[in-house]
Amino acid sequence: MTQSSAKQAPLFDLTPTDEQRMTREAMQRFAESEMRPIARNSDENYELPAEFLQQAHELGITMLAVPEEFGGAGQDRSPISNVLIAEDLAKGDMGLALAVLSPLGVVNTLLDQGSEGQKAKYLPGFVGESFKPAAVAISEPRATFDVRDIQTQATKDGDGYVLNGVKSLVPLATSAELFIVIANLEGQGPQAFIVEAGTAGVTTESQRYLGVHAIQPGIVKLESVRVGADALLGEQEKTFDYNRLLDLSRLGLCAAACGTAQGLLEHVTEYANERVAFGEPISHRQAVAFMVANIAIELEAVRLLTWRAASRAEQGLEFHREAHLAYINASERMLEIGNNGVQILGGAGFIREYLEELWYRNLRGVAIVEGCFAI
User: Is 370 noted as a catalytic residue in this protein?
Assistant: First the structure.
């Protein structure tokens, strides 16, 4: 490359395409007009209004990803576009955003690693007239849970498999019609199994957590659940890439956290400039001003790490290291951002008149929630 051509071709370009720009505008409008007004009530009551889910479905997010042969719009999968969608929706509310995007995470996983038969069987169900709840189930209810040490077991049984175990923090647990369950298959390690909610031995129950109430998290119990050979995700001759699923899911969570933190940053900036104490806005105090600045700095760092990893994924490059860096940074910094948001408001941050305490609780979930949305 000549020196002149190097100057003409930027090596790092974050300019969204026209299509991405239009999609972002639509997501931002939806987040502001439909999600933010119901965020508090959804959190308090663990509620997902049916009319809201239908409105979200009509945005066409899931349909765009499904190939034309299965009834969708057939747009090429774009991890970058998916990251931007997650960020924009989560600015309205992180829990509501992840609930809406959970089925898309299942669709993306099927597209990414499913067999042709699995795609033909399940993808058409996501392009109907109504919202189809579905979720990826990874987490397990134990204090020492490690995504590398899955205790849910899958045992080969004739021409199928038998699943036993318990999954926790599963989005849409009690309403989901389809799960992708991660289970340990002897000799092969963690594998993904497609499990329909009505299968014998599958029971669900809601469970209350500190944050992300709107995803209606819950428990999925699998007791001698028998599934066919075609339930094992992927082509038989191909190896399931568990690390890839984890990385893509964690990037979706990082993006949602960025959207939530952006909403927090904008509100605490406005609050600090308007709240007067001792005759001047509290933003004139260095302790407050520096805290607001640190929120902006840490948020931008997480955002850029997330975008970089998503960009590499979209280009077909290795992105495991970049995704891990983004996730580790988000797990630590989002907790700090949430805490600082509450601190800036002082006593007002401890009451529910403002959303800072809700944002704080949701951002704490970044370190423990797994599998909500694979980009």
Answer: yes
Measured at the CA of 239, the angle between CA 115 and CA 366, to 5 degrees, comes to: 90
Rounded CA-CA distance 209/46 in Å is 10
Residue indicated by tokens 């302790």? 287
Q: What is the pTM of this model?
A: 0.93
For 255-295, what is the HEC assignment? HHHHHHHHHHHHHHHHHHHHCEECCEEHHHCHHHHHHHHHH
Coil, strand or helix: which one is 154? strand
Catalytic residue of the set 322, 356, 357, 370:
370
pLDDT at residue number 7: 53
HSE of 287, CA atoms in CB hemisphere, 13 A:
5
What does the DSSP 8-state code read for residue 34? I
Alpha-carbon span 264 to 256, nearest angstrom: 13
Q: Report the candidate in 83, 99, 96, 101 with the shortest Cα–Cα distance to residue 31.
A: 96
Convert the pLDDT of each residue in 80-107 to its tens digit: 999 999 999 999 999 999 999 999 999 9
Crossing angle of helices 286-314 and 320-345, rounded to 10°: 160
Strand partners, 137: 181
285: how many CB neighbours lie within 10 A of its CB?
A: 14
Burial class (CB in 10 A: 0-12, 13-18, 19+), 299: buried
End-to-end CA distance of the chain: 34
